[in-house]
Amino acid sequence: MERPHDLGGKPGFGAIDVAEAAEPFHNEWEARVFAINRLLLAAGRYTLDEFRDAIERLEPHVYADASYYERWLLAIEGMTVEPASEAER
Amino acid sequence: MSGVHDHHGSAEMTRRVDALVARLAHRGLVTDAAIAETIESFLTHAKPSNGFRIVARAWSDDAFRARLLDDANAAVAELGIDLSHWAPVTLRVVENTADVHNMIVCTLCSCYPIALLGPSPAWYKSAEYRARAVSEPRAVLAEFGVELPERTRIRVWDSTSEMRYLVLPRRPAGSDGLDEQRLATLVTRNGLIGTALV
């Protein structure tokens, strides 16, 4: 299955928005997602490769529509679902 | 998602992160205090000034420059800079010369020497930069206002989670006699990614 993340050399992309944000995180929730990921990696809940794989497995339209840290959040949400709640889905 | 919510909206995202934190806290995996401490520690230690110091030292000390190009992990450790990521990473420093200009990208995601440059800029993570940096680097550089002579070769380095790159820019003309502290003020974050000359 083709994954949505392999963008190198893909045609059809326009100009780069080179503007700089004043703050490293645009919103508080982004910083919290960043920190949650660090803590779960440090605790060994999943590996960095598993985290990347979870992002790369997102449906192409989800991947394309989500902001950067929303992809992280989707990946973490998916990897930390407990079996019981998974059954409810 | 129903489409009623703007799911990129900050309030909705905050609600989702609250829910995730509550779920993980319930299982003893995170606390609000640990999250705050992680953010604070990251923003304190991962700063572009680390990268600026490395470049200033390399411009001032040829022996250090040689070590930096040979084994960047060891050279950076000499300066007391913590390169640690979630997993061990190899750092490679690539040097701009009169003939070669280097730039870095992560076509697959967003791998970046975050400990040396701080959080990456939004454009580095954009689909546009990731797609085009490898196929038309000269056009990409022009969008950053960088024009290179036709004869200059552009070498693009595609980062991975295990392998990160840092560009060593050329020392600007007229900077003779400046000490390391002054030299460090000449360096820019984009210069270390390769989307600026210094």
What features would you describe in this structure?
The complex is a heterodimer of chains A (89) and B (198). Chain A has helices at 28-42, 48-56, 60-65, 68-79, 83-88. By secondary structure, chain A is an all-alpha fold. Chain A has a domain at 47-80. Chain B is an alpha/beta fold. The model of chain B is unreliable at 1-7 (pLDDT under 50). The relative contact order of chain B is 0.16. At the A-B interface, helix 1, helix 2 and helix 4 of A face helix 1, helix 2, helix 7 and helix 8 of B.
Largest interface: A-B, 50 and 50 residues
Amino-to-carboxy terminus distance of chain B? 45 Å
Instruction: State the helix count of chain B.
Output: 11
Alpha-beta classification of chain A = mainly alpha
CATH class of the largest domain in chain B: Alpha Beta
Question: Mean of the pLDDT scores of chain A?
Answer: 88
Q: Assign a percent range to the helix content of chain B.
A: 40-55%
Count of DSSP-assigned helices of chain A:
5
> What is the general shape of chain B?
globular
Oligomer: heterodimer
Which runs of chain B of at least 5 residues are low in confidence (pLDDT < 50)? 1-7
How far apart, in Å, are the first and last alpha carbons of chain A? 24 Å
Give the strand line-up of the largest sheet of chain B. 1-4
Using DSSP, what is the number of strands of chain B? 4
